[in-house]
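Dear colleagues,

I hope this message finds you well. In preparation for our joint manuscript, I am sending the CNH domain-containing protein (Medioppia subpectinata) sequence together with its predicted structure, so that both groups work from identical material. I would be grateful if you could confirm receipt.
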Amino acid sequence: MSVKAFELWSVAEKVMIGERVRVKIESIEFRAKSLYLGTNESFVIEMKYNSITKRCEESLRFKYLGLKKPVVAIRVVCILERILCVCDSTLIVLNQNDLEVISYGNKLKNISVLCLNENPNNNNPFSVELCVARRKQLIVYNMTSEKIIAIKEISLPEFVLSLSMDGQYICVGTDSQYLIVDWDSGHIQDVCNCDSHIAVPVCKRITKHEFLISGPSALGLFVKNTGISERPPIQWSSDIVSIAYSHPYILCLTDSLVSIFSVVDQQLKQRISLTGGLYLDNFDGSVLIATTDSVYELRAIPWTKQLQMLLQLKKVKEALDLSHNWREAGLSQQNYNQILLDVKRDSAFIELSLKHFEEAKQLFVDSNADILELLDLYPDCFPSNLRLETRVKYFVNDFQFIIDNKSEDYNEYKVFLLEFLEELLVNRCQQYINRENEINSALICLYIENKDYYQNLLKLLTTSELKADINWVTENLQKSHNYHALAFYYSCNELNSPKALEIWTNLETKAIMDDNYPGLQCFANLL
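The corresponding structure tokens are as follows:
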């Protein structure tokens, strides 16, 4: 587990009707800042959600359905101002405004499961599509504020235990298997067997034409409407009772805890202890969990905070995956792009600290980071007058050995810097253009330190109109006794041709020494 993605908060505890009657929750729904609870004794309770305290302080009102049976499902259709309840295998419709029962004439009985179409086929905004299961039969209805009309009936080989609907497709969990039903054409596609250890097969719509089911061997399987899977499975436990999707996470509820997996890499990210969990769902962005007498909310940790936690743990891949696959609502594209660049920059420093040099190079380029932030870690490699006014803060403790110049790895890190700066020079990317003076100055210093790069040094020094710190270059060439290279620098850049001639004369008369001076032939070639 690598990140804290959610926190558990109480929304309503030990729910009661009035001051004495404690209820047992069987089902929940959350719409339009109202929490609806179905109880074991056929009560429907509405509680107002306080946006400031983020709690339901008290029950607003309730309706007794008179059946003394559990309300096993409750769904609110705000556009129709209707509440759909399944109690005693009967569909009961309430008016959302006053909780009074509304008669539709055709009473729907013997119902075991109910689901709404989250991606309806019809274009009428004032109607909804719903599917109910009656033993071994599926019935699709079109519902308006005045009537419910059956539009399709489909017979199945086994009793239906769970449903999830998307457009013309219904994912069905039966006694022993999962099916994908195209209710428009009537085609039935076998998917796989159910997990025999789970009492009620779990299926949930994830995205358009994609469902998540509890498959064999405690595997969560992503299934397309064609019956095939395009993502790797999730390895979860065999006692799953409910699941929810809150991008980019899959939340799985058992009797004792909530397990949170990433839909990106299918790995477990977090566990939260909670005893007695019955039902979990995402209600338009609010993830709620019901126990027998209380309701809790799983509130997402802010996206940027999750990213920082991952980076501090040096979980670079997970941070990059999260940054690319999720963004907070209301964040402008410009701000989002900047956060992506910041994550890549921080990731580059982390990869560098881990000596993952190729990954670090690519991330430095992708992040378009100011190259001075990297050079700041090598204070002896470029002029102090060119440094940042404010020291780099990104994971600088990991590089203290570089700054102190005491580590055995110091030379290895300098080779990385040299090769990276060379790539910027050759490719002449924007980072080089922005900091040409600083990069050239640092490269000259690095070439001087590494004799294997002497020809690279000469090539750079003889570049036409070379941009570099003149004082820094000449000082370092003199200190290192690279007089021949210094003469080339003076001559080719027309800085001081007489001085260049003087240096070569002194080299020839051995007044000064430079092991790299090739003799008069070089001087003749230059003329």
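For the figure legend, we might mention the following. The two ends are 68 Å apart (CA to CA). Residues 242 and 253 are 5 Å apart (CA to CA).

With kind regards,
E.M.
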